[in-house]
Amino acid sequence: MNTQNPILKNSQFPNNAIDFNSIKEEHFIPALEEAISLAKQKIQSIKSHSQVTFENSIVALEEAAEEVSFVHTLFHNLLLANGNEKMQELSEELNPMVAIFYNDINLDEELFKKVKFIYEQKGKLGLNTEEENLLIDTYLSFTRNGALLNEDDKVKIRKIDEELAILGPQFSKNVTQAINSYQLKITEEADLKGLPKSVINLAKHEAEARGEKDCWIFTLQMPSYIPFVNYCDNRELREDMVTAYAVMNTSGPFDNRNLILKTLKLREQRAQLLGYKNHAEYTLERRMANTPDKVINFLKEIEKVAKPVCENEIKELQNYVDEIAGPNPLQSWDFNYYSEKYKKEKFHFDEEEVRPYFKLENVLTGVFAVAEKLYGLKFKMNQKYPVYHQDVQVYEVTDENNEFVGLFYTDFFPHANKKPGAWMTEFREQGLYRGKVNRPHISIVCNFTKYTPDHPSLLSLMEVKTLFHEFGHALHGLLSKCKYRSHSGTHVFWDFVELPSQIMENWVEEKETLDLFASHYQTGEKIPEDLIHKIKSVSQFQAGYANVRQLLFGTLDITYHMTPADEIIDVMDFEDKTLKNLRVLPKVEGGNISVGFAHIFSGGYSSGYYSYKWAEVLDADAFELFKEKGIFNIETAKSFKENILERGGTEHPMKLYKSFRGHEPDTQALLRRDGLL
∠ CA(258), CA(447), CA(260), 5° rounding? Predict the structure, then answer.
C-alpha cells in the first residue's frame, strides 16, 4: 500500500511486524480516514460489477474493509493496554467514525441487493463449507444491522450505533480511572500484619514509585487488592478496600449508572427496530444457546445443584469463624480472609506456599512446553521487534516442521494506563489480508504481581491459571488455518470462544504439567508431590460458592437485557431485586456490581456472560477425554487442534465440538469435576 502513514505503510520488520516505535497518537485519525477512503473505493468497485459472482461480491466485501479493521483494532488494543488521556479522548472521535463507516456498508441498498442475489443462489454455486459460511455470515451481517429497514429506521439505527460507540469506551474509561484514583496508604507497620512479605514489598515499591516515603501503598489493581483482602488481619482496613472497590463507580466523576441506563435503552431500541423483542433475543440468535429461555434454563440447572452446596459452604465457614473469632456474621471483607485461613487448616494449604514455585518466567516456559508437547509449537523470544511498552516481549512461533506460525506478544504487569483484568487480542488476524492468507500476530495482556528490584514476579495459583487461560485463547488464534479473517481464530460464537481458553486451565493441576516448570525460584527444587496433591485437593474447595458467583453475573446480564428498558429506573434497585436469591453474603452498603461490569457494558459480552459457565461445561466434558487417553496424548491433541483450534468459525460450533468429542457436551461433566454431585 502506497502511504506514508506509519500505521498503514508496509512494515520494514520481519513477518510484517507493527512498527510501534513510529506510531504516535496523531497518526490514528489520518490513518482511519485513509483506510475508509480506500475501502469506499473498493466498495464502489463491487457495486459497479454488472455480473455478480461470489468472488467479486462476497469475497471482495470481506477484503474491502481490511485496513479499517486493522486501524481500529490496533487503536483499541493500545487504548486498553496503554491508553493515556489523549487516547481516551481520541476514542470519542474515532469510534463513531468506524460506526458510521460500517453503517454506510450495512445500510447500502445497492450493495445489499448484490449480497442478497448471491445468497439466494447459494445452493447452486458449488461452495465449500467455509465459503458457504462466509456467504451466510455476510448476508446476516447486513440483515442484522438494518439492511431490510425502511429509510427512516435506517437513520435511527445509525444514530443508535454512533451513540453506543461512545458509551462503551466511556464506561471502560470510568472503571479504569476509578481504580487508578484510589490508594490506601498505610504508615503503621502493625497494620501490615498477616500480609505476605512479597505483598508488603510490592506496596513499598508502589509507594516509592509515587514519591512517598515511610509508608506502604495498596491499590485496587488485582495484584494488590486480592492479597490484601485475603491476608490483612486488620478488619477495618479490609472493609475500606472492599467498600472502595464496591462503590467506585456509583457516584462522583466516574459514576456509570446513567451510562448503563442509556446503553440498555439504545440496545433495546436497536433490537426492536430489527424485529426482535429485546437485545438478548437479538444477541442469542447467533449463539450456541440460541434463545434467552435456554440460557435461563441452563443457569437454573446449575443453580439447582450449586446453590445448596454454596449455602452449606457458607455455614461451614461461619461455624469456623465463630470458633476462632467469636460470633460475628460474615461480611464481604471477611469471606476471602477466613476462607484462606480455613483452607489452610483443612487442607494444610496456603496460597502463598505455592508462589515460590511459580516464578513468572518459569510458568511461561511451562506453558510453552505444554504447547510443544500437545501441538509441536516452539516459542523463541526476539528482542528486535518493536513493542508499545517496555514490559512487552515478542516471540516467534514455529511448528514441528520449523514453519512460521505467528508472532506472540506478552504484556504481563499493571500500570496506570492499562485496563484491569486479563485478555487475549490480535494485532494481525490470520487469514486473507492484502490478497494473501497471512499468519497472525497474537497478544495476551494481564495484570500480574510485578517484580520489584529485589524480588522476581511470583504468581499465585489463580494467576497461573489466568496465564494458561489466556494462552488457550492465544493458541486458538495462532493455530488458526482459515482462509477468511472473519472466520479465523477466536471469531466464533461467543459461547464457544472460551472453550480453548478454559480447557487449558485443567493442565495446571496435573503433576505431569507441574513437573515441567514448577521449581523453587531460589533453590531450584521441584514442587513437592504433597503440594501438588494439595493443589488438586483444594480445586473443589468452595466450588459451590464459585459457581453461584458466576451464576450471579450471568443472571444479572441476561436479566438486564430481557427486561424492558423503561422498567429499569434505578440501577442499584434493579440489581438488588435481580440478585436477591443469589446473594449469599450481605451486600456492601452502597456497593454495586453493574457499574463496574465492563464485560457486558463495554466488552462485547452483553447477553453472553453465561458463556463462561457454558464453556466450563464444554471444557470439563472435553478434558475428560484427555484424562481418559492421557493429558498429553498426541491423537487427542491432534483431534482438538484439527476440529477446534484450526477451524475458527468455519462451521457451527456444535458440529465442530461433536467432531472432536463424538457427542454433545454433558452438563454433568462440570458438576462431576467441581464435586457438586
Answer: 10
Share of the chain above pLDDT 90, in %: 93
Q: Where does residue 580 rank: exposed (0-12), middle (13-18), buried (19+ CB within 10 A)?
A: exposed
What tens digit of pLDDT does each residue of 104-159 get? 999 999 999 999 999 999 999 999 999 999 999 999 999 999 999 999 999 999 99
Whole-structure pTM value: 0.90
Query: How far, in Å, CA of 308 to CA of 289, rounded?
Result: 25
Beta strands in 336-465 (DSSP E): 378-381, 393-398, 404-411, 423-428, 431-433, 436-438, 441-445
Q: Report whether CATH 3.40.630.30 matches the domain 14-106+108-144.
A: no
User: Measured between alpha carbons, how far is residue 594 from residues 5, 399, 591 in Å?
Assistant: 40, 43, 9
Residue 198: per-residue pLDDT: 87
Burial-class residue 7 by CB neighbours within 10 Å (0-12, 13-18, 19+): buried
Residue positions annotated with a catalytic role: 470
Dist. CA 357–CA 526, nearest whole Å? 8
Q: Which cell goes with 122?
A: 447459494
CATH 1.20.1050.40 domain position(s) in the chain: 14-106+108-144
Give start and end residues of each alpha helix (H) in 274-331. 279-284, 292-325
